[in-house]
Structure formats: structure tokens, C-alpha cells
What does this fold into?
Amino acid sequence: MNLIDEETRCELRAPEAVLCGSDMNGAWGTRHSFARTMLRRAASHQWRVTKSRLELDELGRGTAVYTIDAEGYSLKFIAFCQALEESERTDRVIANAWDVTAALIEGVLSPEREAELRRNVTVQEQGRTDPETFIMTRANRSARFFDYVSDCLAAGTQPDVAKIGPSPYLIRSTAFYGNGKFGLKELATLPAAHPLSVPYRSQMLAAWLLRELSMDLVEHVARAKARAAGTNAVPLNAQWGKYFGLGNATGLGMVPFLVNHPGYLDAWCKLREIPLAVGLATRYAPEDPDLGRVVELLERADRHLAEKSELKTAPFLSTDSIRPQLRQLLGELQAFRASGGKAVPVLARLHELAADLSPEARGLFASIVIELRNDFDRDAEAILTVGAPPPFDPAMRGVNCGHCWNRTIAGPAPSTLPPQSAPPTTGTPPRTAKNRGGRNGHRWPTARWSTARTWYAGSTPWLPIWNASPPDPVWLNSCWLIRATVLLPNGSSKPRITAMGICRTTSWMHNSCR
It folds into this structure.
């Protein structure tokens, strides 16, 4: 039975529960998460990755190119590397230089195209890409680990795993831009059979290749250091390839993409909720081997959290707080396995218990339940392939369709709205602590709201279009959908921007519409 058939048989959780903020905050990765589906696809279809070029100087400055043969499609990952001074590195949005800037492209990489990519990818937001470029990204070397690891390898030794600790990485990314931004290839233009037609797969592939680059880069720098010191460098032990990850400083690019594509959020949640409902509806006898697998995964999760005990997780629950909750679930399950009773939906009972403990415990247990079934893996591809979104509706009349969770967003009573007869025609948002300054200390650019400004509160009609920057609004907790043309300080303009944000103060929040 496939996943869609199961959807009609099992009772799903209500949308307001699935998209509750605390519940989403407690979610963990599953076997259908973007990274794992990408790696399964790559392994099952035997993608081949070749290091085509590594032209770097002794400091690791230069160009790296990786070629990916993915099911007959030729992809390339090109990275432009430099070595910034530590004082020049920042993970903030205002950064204008990075140790690595890179792009994932399709097709031939001619000298002319490479030169064009070099001009645009290295400046990130200020550049534009050709339509055969999937992803643009950037990263910085880790101040804690990169030089330490290269020094160890140059001296002929392996780094100390205790010093690297529970969050091992050599470089950390600061953006993986969503498809369609800055000229990047739109997912809707890809055939369903394309290996990157699934949302976030191109970002996951770029992240994996960026991690591979980090290890090639640190070994190259180590060899240069060894030559200068008269020593013999050693490569990283192969086991480090399973341990090192990729650091991440922001969700810039990926989160705004999801906000602008609610259909992908719906598909992502469906891919978690349907397998979860199937598992919770299943009746298990105490001796069922699947319950032994659940025990194994609960114990494995406990060991994982123990290894991460030093990580600061605020505002999320600490790992030391989650571990006793997992052990409580494990104890309940072990008691049922020893009871010799009849088959019952025991996982549903444990899921309810986990929900009473914490969102983190519930989310982790849900991931374990989903892990039990591997026969839904193929269906994941179909569910995540979402068609083109409906045309933009400035009145947001379709906002309730399939997304009833948004009815919980509080809005002001209609009587508190300002008069609609005389909207302002000029002006910029006030300079407050919330919106003070932009890059290089300038004000955020003035925006012409060229399509619509929308306030949503239940069934209240939408506000008229204002061809101006809004004044200091009085609409607390109001949800805004904006499409705008932005005027830059130099007099030029950026194309239309679509953004969504919730105004929670009485001063305009520019961070919602950057």
C-alpha cells in the first residue's frame, strides 16, 4: 500500500496542531528529511562526483570545480576561494566578503560562463546568475577548527576528536539561496524526473559538496604548511569524512523561500504526518520485532543526546532535559513488551505520553515511528514535487484554503483600522531601534508598494493599495504580504520583492521585508 492510500485510511493530526509554533520547534529530522532523501537518491541512482579542478595557492586561494553525473544530467559545483583575515570575517547579513563563494550549475562551464559566474557569485546578493544556475552559496572558515586541523595534518598527526567536540566542521555556511532568487533556476521549470526537481535538494547537494570542499581545502593548506616547515603532511583519516559536517550560521535564503511557497510547507508536513499516522494506527503485539527496533532507536537517541550535552540549545529544551523523558518512554515500552498482552496501538499511547512531556520528546519519538517504514521512500519524491503556485491574489482571498492554522494569527478589530480614504503618498518608516540603519549605516531603502499591502484578520476585507511606504502602523500582530520595488541608495532599483511578516510592534519592522 502506498503513502497516498494510507492517507485515506489513517486519521491525521489537525492542522492547528501540526503547525503550532511549539510543535514545529520540537521537530527532528526524519528518514524523509531533505538531506536523507537526497543521499538515498544519489546512492540508489549511483550519482558520480569527480573533483575536476583544484587550483589553489598555498593559502587556499583559487578555484575548485566538482562535476556531478546525476542520472544523465551534468551538474557542476564551482567554488571561488580566498583567505580572509579573521577581522574581515562576519556571519552577519551585512558581510560583503567570504572565504568561499560557490554555485551549483547545470550544463557546460565555458571560460566565458566561468568569468560571468566569478563576477556575480563572489558578490552574492549584488549579483545575478544565469537561468541554468541552481544555487548560490557562501561560507567562512571556522576560526576554531580550520587552522587547528591544518596545523595537525601539516605536523603529520590527526586532530584530537575531544578538541573538535560535538559540533565538528571546518567551514560554516551563511546562506543557501532559494530557487528563483537572483535569477536562479525555478523549480517549476524542471521536469518531474530531474534529480533536483524536489525542493531543497539542490541546497542539500550544494551543502554536501561544500563539506567535501572543506576537507579538500584543509588538506591542501596543510600540505603547503608542511612544505614550508620541512615536514610531511598526512591526509585526514577516512573516518573524519563521517564525522565532519558543515557549520551553519543563518537560514538566509532557505527560510524566505519556504514563506513564499506554502505548498512546499504543506508537502513537507504531509510527508511527516502521513507515515506518523500509519505508525500510530498500527497494533503491535509485545513480541513484534518493530518494537525492538523502537527500543534500539530510543537508546541510540539517548546516546546521541549524551554526546551533545555541552551544546547550548536555548531557546529549545536542553539535551540533559530531554534524556530523562526518552528513558521514561523507553521504560513504558519495555513494560509493555514484558506484559505478554494482546496487540494494541502502543506507539499511539507513547506518542500521547511524549506530547505531555515536551515538544522535543514528541518530535523525536515521531521521527522514530516514521523510521520503521521504508516502503514509503519512493512516494516521498512524488509528494515533494509541487506544481506551480496559484497566481498572486492581493486580497489574500485564498489564504484560508488548506491553511486553517493561520486563523490563529491575532489581528485588530476593524474599528481600530485608520481611515481608508486618505492614505499617505510619501514618507519612509521611522528610524527606530528596530530598523536603525542598513548596510554601512544607511537607512533601509524606501519601498514603493507597487502591488498591494494586505492586512489579514479573519474575514475582514483587505486594505486598498498604497503607493507609498507605510506610516508607523497601529496594527499589532497583523500579517502582511508585500510585493514591492525597492529603490537603492545609488538611485537604481531592485526587481519586485515578495515578503511576508508579522508586525509585533508599533514601528514598522523592516526586517520583515528585506
Observations:
- Residues 201-229 form the longest helix (29 residues).
